[in-house]
Amino acid sequence: MVKQGNDSLSDDEKNCNLFSPPTSPIFQAQLLELRTQNYQLSDDLRKSTAELNNVRQKTSNLEKEYLKAQKEVDALLSENEMLQGKLHSQEDDFRLQNSTLMQELSKLCSQIEQLEKENRGLKEGKEVPLASTPSSSTVDGELLRLQAENAVLQKNMTGESVRLQGEKEALYNDSRTKIDEILQKKEEELKSLNIRIQKLQGDLMLANQSIAEQKEHLQSQQKEHEMALHALKEQIQTVKTQEMNLLRDQNVALSVELQQRQTEQESLLAQKDDLSSQLQEASRANSRLLEQLTELGQEKEKVQQELEETRKTADKRKAMLDELAIEVAQEKSRHKEELSDVRLQHEKEILSVRARYEKELRGLHEDKNRTEEEIRSQLRDEKARTRELEGLQQTVEELQAQIQSMEGTKGWYERRLKEAEETVEKNTLEHQEHIQKLQQDHDAQLKVNPASLHMPTHTHTQQTPISEAHLNLDFSRLTLSA
Predict the structure, then answer these.
(1) With bands split at pLDDT 50, 70 and 90, how would you rate the model's confidence at 173?
(2) What gap in Å lies between CA 90 and CA 40, rounded to an integer?
(3) How many CB atoms lie within 10 A of CB 399?
(4) Which residue stretches belong to region Disordered (predicted)?
């Protein structure tokens, strides 16, 4: 399982390093130069677009002012036409009044002529009746009155005609001067607007020309950048091939080291089997000692039965039994010390194997985390490069696929670690249940054999470490297999 994890990790590192950027100073200098040129060109293009927008804004403002001036000129022309219409209407009214006055004057003149004819006829007549004198006097008075009225009317008519003519000329002159001033002012404004429009059109043409030149310059620089990028891609490909070869060599070295570790693990497993066999032999020796102890107990009972017959023989046998008990106790203590030493050594070996396994597992996790961090940093670099050069989209997609595969590998490691923890917990529970079962069996044996109360206590103290050591061996074997 560790071998599979190392193989998958080495494959992921290999695939990740395929897309890692080369760290040569020449490539970095060329990339920095291309970035500075790209920034300068983008700044120039931004400035040109800003100037073009300003020129367009000025042109639109001038067009708005021109339209406003045109509207003012149209309003002044319409006002001039309205004043001319008023002048024509006043002239028509004056003509109408003049014609009416002339008609009345002609009527008065005809009446005056008729009266003069009648007067002359009356003066030339020989006979004038008396009754006609008051009528002639009234006619003369009427004639004088009419003549006076005619004179007044003629005077009023001439004054009115003079006044109307003066007002007409004054209005005409005022309107003409105002119209001339307005037209002159608008012509000057139109001339200035035309000059400004021509100037802005020239500026716009120059700006368009400069923009076209900058576009050509940018296109040429873009072609140069594409050529440089192509060359850099070739350099990257060569560096990638070199790194691939280096990674293959490293993979071979790691596989050799993994095989060595596997052989070491196999040797440790063999040592563990030897220790388990030694423990089994010790347990068998302990069982033989227990049999001997039971036999001694039986002999002790026989000696107690014959104690009344021969105390001296019993005392001697008791002394022999005491010596034998001392020897047995010494043998038990020595055997217990050997078992404790074996157990301590076995626990040390188990702890060392477990520490080594945990160290390797932590190393794998650290390598995985470091690889993930490198991949994330490389992904950030690749994203920045795609924003700047806009040409390595496929590489970014492949890196994202690599990250997804690494996340899958991470999930696989986490699942395996969780399974191993569950296996350890399960084995611990089984171990505790097995110990409880052994204790129950031992208690049952104590209840069945009450006569041997003194001796099974030592057997219990000896059997329990053996069973615990055996269970610890089984637990370590399960841990290593997990």
Answers:
(1) confident
(2) 74
(3) 23
(4) 1-20
Residues 175 and 81: beta-carbon distance below 8 Å: no
Q: What is the mean pLDDT of residues 224-228?
A: 81
Whether the CA torsion 67, 72, 76, 79 is positive or negative: it is positive
- Residue 189, classified by CB atoms within 10 Å of its CB into exposed (0-12), middle (13-18) or buried (19+), is middle
CB 105 within 8 A of CB 150: yes
Neighbours of 136 (CB within 10 A): 15
Q: What is the pTM of this model?
A: 0.25
First-to-last C-alpha distance (Å) of the chain:
8
Strands (E) across 57-165 are located at: none
Return the structure tokens found at 346.
Answer: 């076995």
CA distance 460 to 287: 11
Note every long-range contact of 331-335, with CB atoms under 8 Å and residues 24 or more positions apart, other chains counting: 331/289, 332/289, 332/458, 332/462, 335/282, 335/285, 335/286, 335/289, 335/462
| pLDDT band for position 453 (cuts 50, 70, 90) | very low
Q: Are the beta carbons of 84 and 175 closer than 8 angstroms?
A: yes
Task: Return the pLDDT at 460.
Answer: 41
Give CA–CA dist 452/301, Å, rounded.
Answer: 11
Contact 138, 86 (CB under 8 A): no
Q: What CA–CA distances, in Å, run from 481 to 109, 177, 323, 357?
A: 152, 116, 49, 11
pLDDT in tens, 263-304: 888 888 888 788 778 778 877 877 777 787 777 778 767 766
Q: How far is CA 241 from the centre of its chain?
A: 33
- Nearest-CA neighbor of 374 among 30, 18, 96, 75? 18
Residue 142 is encoded by which pair of tokens?
């009427």
Sign of the C-alpha dihedral computed for residues 66, 70, 71 and 75 taken in this order? positive
| CA–CA separation, 470 and 474 (whole Å) | 6
Give the C-alpha separation, 353 to 268, whole Å: 8
Cα separation of 19 and 405, whole Å? 15
CB 453 within 8 A of CB 323: no
Helices and strands in the chain, H and E counts: 6, 0
- Per DSSP, the three-state class of 375 is helix
**Any idea what the Cα angle at residue 246 is, between residues 245 and 247, rounded to 5°?**
90
**For residue 392, what are the contacts with CB-CB under 8 A and spacing of at least 6?**
382, 385, 386
pLDDT in tens, 127-147: 444 344 455 567 677 777 777
